[in-house]
Design goal:
two-stranded antiparallel sheet, alpha+beta, 2 domains
Length: 104
């Protein structure tokens, strides 16, 4: 908010209100920053997935920790010309997403 509004608040409602408003603004800004960081991390993961896909690496987890991967993806997907990157959690169990499929 503009400083003019804060000055009016100071006159009308006293210091506590303004302090509350400032705290609220700070909280909003820190939330925004956190969201930006999360977005950045997601972008990095996506970039890593794409890079792993072009190098022919069989899954993201396999590049970081040597986790044995389950049976290869279905032939129908391969025949369609899709590239498939399998996704594993670090324990070796299937992650939320089983595989990321990139169209040809």
């Amino acid at each position: 908010e503009s400083y003019g509004e804060l000055d009016e608040l100071l006159r009308e409602e006293g210091h506590d209100q303004v302090h509350g408003k400032l705290l609220q603004l700070q909280r909003l800004k820190s939330q925004e920053r956190r969201q930006q960081q999360q977005l950045g991390q997601q972008e990095q993961l996506l970039a890593h997935l794409r890079q792993a896909n072009t190098r022919g690496v069989r899954g993201v987890a396999a590049t970081r920790r040597h986790v044995p991967l389950a049976k290869p993806p279905a032939n129908s997907v391969k025949e369609a010309g899709h590239k498939v990157v399998r996704v594993r959690s670090h324990t070796g169990r299937p992650a939320d997403v089983d595989a990321v499929v990139f169209p040809p």
